[in-house]
User: What shape does this take?
Amino acid sequence: MAEPAAFVPPRGPAFWRNPRVRAVAFQVVALVLVLWFFWTIFDNTMTNMESRGITTGFGFLDNTAGFGILFSLIPYDETNTYGRTFIVGLLNTLLVSGLGILFATIIGFILGVARLSPNWLIAKMALVYIEITRNIPLLLQIFFWYFAVLRTLPGPRQSLEFPLGSFLNNRGLYAPAPLVEPSFWAVVLTFFAAIAGAVALLRWAKKRQDATGQRFPAWPVSLAMVVGLPLALFWIIGAPVLWDMPELKGFNFKGGMRLIPEFIALWLALTLYTAAFIGEIVRSGIQAVSHGQTEASQALGLKRGQTLRLIVIPQALRVIIPPLTSQYLNLTKNSSLATAIGYPDLVSVFMGTTLNQTGQAVEIVAMTMAVYMTISLSISLFMNLYNRAVALKER
Amino acid sequence: MAETPTQGAPSETFKPIAPRPPPRNAVGPLRWMRENLFSSPLNVILTLIGVYLIWLIVPPFIDWALLSADFTGTSADDCASDGACWVFIGRRFDFFIYGFYPDAERWRVDIMFVMLAAFLVPQFIPGFPAQGRKWLGIFGLTLFPVIAGALLLGGVFGLPFIETGKWGGLMLTLVLSYVGIVAALPIGTLLALGRRSSMPVIRTICVTFIELWRGVPLISVLFMASVMLPLFLPEGVNFDKLLRALIGIVMFQSAYMAEVIRGGLQGIPKGQYEAASALGLGYWRSTALIILPQALKMVIPGIVNTFIALFKDTTLVLIIGLFDILGTVQAAIVDPAWGRVAVEGYVFAAFCFWIFCFGMSRYSQGLERKLHTGHQR
Assistant: This one.
């Protein structure tokens, strides 16, 4: 009897063909390459900075800046530090992007609904607006508003007059500034209290409707609360706001508040440009809700307004929110085009003037990029939270 | 049917009277207007507002741009009327197209334009043979950039060397956006593959790269390319401004391209990967032969949209001192010899961009409809 042949395990592939070995090798090589790349850059930068006599570090932030800034939300003058210029630029960026996002959203939603209007003329007008605006570069639009419109306005003596005592001329928009007395804060406080009350009321009404089926006109009541209570208090304590009106004195306006043309041009262009994109997003979001949903809700006897509010909009929002987020991010990043017309935003003040004066390229670029990354991440975080709230809840 | 005499007298057959015409407001333009413009009180108001707005904007614009505009002449003196001074655009047209490129050498740019049109136009003609379209496309992505680069830059084959500082106008806009897209495609594809890789180190590197570039504005990337790149390089090494801008644009664009392509990769069913492995194809071969051809085809509309965004974004290079088409317009309108021609200049530049971008977006919408085979209502 022959001995049974000893079991010889099949030989696996050679070790360089083993996927696991390969994966580790690839990753090690990639890591080494990346580290080597960064080390080379770091080394070169250090050598170059040394030969140019630039000291590294963030000490320069405490040095006196010595240059003026056209427009600032916080008190600033030449004697302040570079650290303060950073804050000024950051606030200006946040101001123009915040206002831009607010108005672009409003105009964008109007455009999106207008695109789907049964009124042929309105739908076509919205279409023409969107197709013109979004196919022309933003920078060109900013230049148009700044150089071709606002800069060619007449001087202060021939200002265009607007309602409520505002004036527009080539130095900007002059509007009445509110001078607030301390008792006004009571009105503000009431306003926020009313909002909190309205939220509670809405919750209670929904709970009761879910439980008993009884409806309560929660929306009109809460609206009356939010608008009415502060207004009533405002009148009772005797309108504690004085208006500082702009007045023509000599060659310029005194008093009031002034919005510089750079700000107006940037804000207008950002708003109108982004609104076109938001309009298309809103339109496709509404169209994404299947027609069967509308028909079903009509079959259930819901009115047109209810169909829109209870069926279409909640479902459309799911489609709208993610691309809307990226439009908000785009708007914030695009606000850096301020540099081109001299609105003192972060890039213009910090990456422009401050960098030119100090030469601290690495620190300044890193700080600026970090700011934009932070803004981007927080907007997407916030919108993701909101998105989770409206997302489809599946069992 | 012919009537036979046996079927009774003709007077007895039923003869319907001719239908009455529908009411006048139920047919033709009146009906259309009733349904589309005046269907409800709200719509009546909206229509009236719309008509008023159009009345406010369109006639003055036509009057300015056409009726009372000046088309012929040679200098600012010929622009005496209130309307647009198109003479200015006519006189500076060459500058807007070629920038500072020397007069005698502009035929080189023209050849580049012709080649570009020669392989781009067939891509948009539906009846063109698919095989020819494919080879023209491959030519455009590989050989064309090399030929065009040699042609424009010169210094070879006896062509005089033209430094990139003299490039400008529409030509520079096209160079920037074309190089941006052609270079970003392969880098973006690799990044997208890396982002979906199962190796954690590769994935982390790719995700960091993509999110870093996507999180910052292009302006700061261009600033970085022009200010920091010289710091990063060993001493004595330096390259020209256009190349630095291009590096910035390509890096920025590849990150966006990677996200578009990732969308396509995610759309490929898992069965395709498994089938490829079952056939014994390794990673690279299954990716190159099975996955990418399907994924890339799916995201062509997305790629075109990215290209449109890039095309508009190339205007930003004027901030770091390059003269693209907007840069040349901006330089020309401040010429005191011409007076106030800013609006004309901007309208011209806007029209150039609009033609390109609108054409491309129509193309990508058409593709989307062709590729989209879901339920439509």
